[in-house]
Specification:
- The structure holds 2 protein chains of 2 kinds.
- By secondary structure, chain A is mainly alpha-helical.
- Chain A has helices at residues 2-34, 39-44, 56-102, 108-120, 123-136, 143-150, 154-167, 170-178, 183-194, 196-212, 215-220, 229-237, 246-267, 269-273, 275-282.
- Chain A has 15 helices and no strands.
- In chain A, helix 3 crosses helix 10 and helix 3 packs antiparallel against helix 12.
- The radius of gyration of chain A is 24 Å and the shape is globular.
- Chain A starts with a helix and ends with a helix.
- Chain B is mainly alpha-helical.
- Chain B has 3 domains: 2-54, no CATH class; 59-85, no CATH class; 89-317, MetI-like (MetI-like fold, Orthogonal Bundle).
- Chain B has 14 helices and 2 strands.
- Chain B has helices at 2-9, 18-58, 81-87, 90-122, 129-137, 144-155, 161-168, 181-206, 210-218, 223-234, 236-251, 255-260, 273-282, 287-317; strands at 60-64, 73-77.
- In chain B, strand 1 and strand 2 (73-77) form a beta hairpin.
- Classes of the chains: A mainly alpha, B mainly alpha.
- Chains A and B meet through helix 1, helix 3, helix 4, helix 5 and helix 9 of A and helix 1, helix 2, helix 4, helix 5 and helix 6 of B.
Chain lengths: 283, 318
């Protein structure tokens, strides 16, 4: 009797989970289907099924060639902003977090408290004054305007400090010093390696954060050649009402930008599982 | 610098024993600052500096002489004028009320949704948990702008298959009307972040030792009973954390209404507090008011999240 009851449960639970999965996957399914249609079919054929002709290849070619290959440029910009920004941010957070974790020095607590305060400051509150500051320095409408703020991760420093305290052994540092290695050498050759798991988490969080950021590039950039992909697609989207040929462009552009991210996200799941709670559990 | 270091360390064997020790101590004083310096420089430039600037701006009045400021611009201390003006701006107050309403509904709905999904996926009854977990988490990888553009196509009459399906069953759905568009935004936010919150909760569930479950099963506890008296209390820290992050996120709502504005006339220029600050800064060029609004939003986020933390702490102790 218990087995029939538990089999019944399995069917009910799995059915509920499947219905929920439809909710999460429907927009992605729709964009795949819509990207195969001509702009006429988009409005005249049922949205959840394919159109009369198969236009996927045409649409994708259009996406990449429109306005002098601007889409490719946007993708490349996003890769530069997110890749370079996250790489530098991770390295700087590791150096700073390790310094606070493993050295006794005057001002240590003050520095850490200030940085921790920085974790809590909403990025939207700093975006406007950042623009004013950068326009005085002549950094607005340049790659640096988006890159420099992306290279700082107060949260990353916080995570690296916790991780370095827990995993970097004092004895390893001491033996490195006895071998005559300089302090920077010790950091680069011994510490960085043992901090790798935390570094991966910091890097991924920062990468996604920069890739998703909208407000900062929106404020900083005027030239559409410097746009990241998010800003570029928004520019296309806002033109569809005046010129319908932007519909297939925007939808195709959405598909191209979403698929790699979705795949990456599914494979990188395990790095997010701990992430934020790691800090609260260990700290 | 490296050359001088090696030059000093070569004769170490012959030198008196105090010399390397002294060098060692000197390096000890400098090393943490050298390691911290690049981070701190950028932190000062892009976080601390702008925060200070925002606070200063919020207390500054800018006077433009002449109709367009052509006779010179002067600035002076404004006291709390900008704050008074921001808080007596009906649109800004309405925007605050709107995001509070949004938060009161959306944050609990999403948190309960994420918790139920996590519990179901971790229950022995679920088939293919890895597939479902991946499917729910997938939207988190899609940037807010992209997700909003995507959903905006599913909201627009003529293009949206959801509206077409609604018509088939006799429902006339208007996703972008003045009374519904807030909940259409809530749907986008829920769609994006539920899977992430679910993963955080699952991580906490996996940390519960299996002996506890076995003991409960020996005592004859039902799955519901186990969820209510073992799992929920033990995942509380994760729940509290995800609620705090959701509160902060809600107060800063910007991207979704900003992008949806092109298709939804119901989204006015000061729809959310952040949109109001953005409009004041870039449409009206009034940085004083905009800075005051940004400071108010940040302080409200602090107060609400610390208030919530204090409240859960007291409840946890009693």
């Amino acid at each position: 009797m218990t087995t029939t009851r538990s089999r019944g449960w399995t069917i009910v639970v799995t059915a509920v989970l499947a219905i929920v999965a439809i909710y999460f996957l429907v927009p992605v399914y729709w964009v795949i289907v819509a990207a195969t249609k001509s702009s006429g079919d988009l409005f005249t054929t049922p949205g959840f099924w394919f159109g009369r002709t198969m236009e996927l290849w045409n649409n994708i070619v259009q996406v990449f060639t429109a306005s002098d290959h601007i889409y490719l440029r946007w993708l490349l910009n996003s890769v530069i902003y997110a890749g370079v920004g996250a790489l530098v941010a991770t390295y700087l957070a590791a150096a700073g977090g390790y310094a606070i974790a493993k050295y006794e020095f005057r001002g240590r607590n003050l520095v850490f408290a200030t940085v921790l305060g920085g974790v809590l400051v909403p990025s939207t509150a700093t975006a406007l004054p950042l623009f004013l500051l950068f326009s005085k320095l002549g950094l607005t409408n340049t790659y640096w305007g988006v890159l420099l703020p992306a290279m700082v991760s107060p949260f990353g420093l916080y995570l690296c400090r916790i991780y370095a305290t827990a995993t970097v052994e004092d004895s390893v540092l001491e033996s490195g010093r006895l071998d005559g290695a300089g302090e920077l050498r010790i950091f680069h050759s011994l510490v960085l390696r043992s901090m790798t798991p935390a570094l991966v988490t910091v890097f991924l969080f920062q990468l996604v954060g920069i890739w998703n950021n909208f407000l900062l590039p929106l404020i900083m950039l005027a030239d559409d050649k410097l746009y990241p992909i998010t800003l570029g697609l928004n520019a296309w989207r806002s033109q569809v009402d005046r010129s319908p040929e932007f519909y297939p462009l925007t939808i195709g552009g959405l598909l191209v930008s979403v698929i790699p991210l979705a795949i990456a996200m599914v494979f990188l799941q395990r790095y997010w599982r701990g992430g934020l709670t790691d800090g609260s559990v260990k700290g | 610098m490296t050359t001088s270091e090696t030059a000093v360390s070569t004769p170490v064997v012959a030198a008196p024993p105090t010399a390397p020790a002294r060098r060692h101590r000197r390096m000890h004083v400098a090393a943490p600052w050298i390691l911290l310096a690049p981070f701190l420089a950028l932190f000062l430039l892009t976080v601390l500096g702008p925060v200070i600037l925002a606070v200063v701006q919020s207390f500054t009045r800018i006077n433009r002489a002449g109709l367009f400021g052509e006779k010179g611009v002067t600035s002076g201390f404004a006291g709390f004028d900008n704050y008074v003006q921001a808080l007596s701006n009906g649109n800004f107050i309405q925007a605050i009320g709107r995001v509070l309403l949004f938060g009161i509904v959306q944050v609990p709905v999403m948190t309960v949704f994420a918790t139920v999904l996590a519990l179901l996926l971790e229950s022995a009854s679920a088939r293919w948990p890895a597939f479902f977990r991946a499917a729910y988490f997938l939207p988190y990888g899609i940037p807010g702008v992209i997700a909003t553009i995507l959903w905006s196509f599913l909201y627009v009459p003529g293009l949206s298959p959801i509206i077409d399906v609604g018509k088939l069953v006799g429902l006339d759905i208007d996703f972008l009307g003045p009374n519904t568009v807030l909940w259409s935004i809530a749907n986008i936010v829920t769609w994006t972040y539920t899977g992430y919150n679910m993963l955080v909760i699952i991580a906490q569930l996996k940390a519960i030792p299996s002996e506890i479950y076995e003991a409960a099963r020996v005592d004859g506890a039902s799955p519901l009973r186990i969820a209510a008296s073992i799992q929920l209390p033990l995942i509380r820290p994760a729940l509290v954390l995800s609620v705090v992050f959701s509160i902060i996120g809600t107060l800063q709502l910007f991207v979704e209404p900003m992008v949806l504005r092109t298709v939804a006339p119901a989204i006015v220029t000061e729809y959310t507090p952040n949109l109001s600050a953005y409009t004041n800064a870039f449409a009206y060029n009034d940085y004083g008011i905009a800075s005051a609004e940004a400071v108010i939003i940040a302080v409200a986020a602090f107060v609400l999240s610390f208030g919530f933390l204090a409240w859960t702490n007291r409840k946890g102790r009693s």
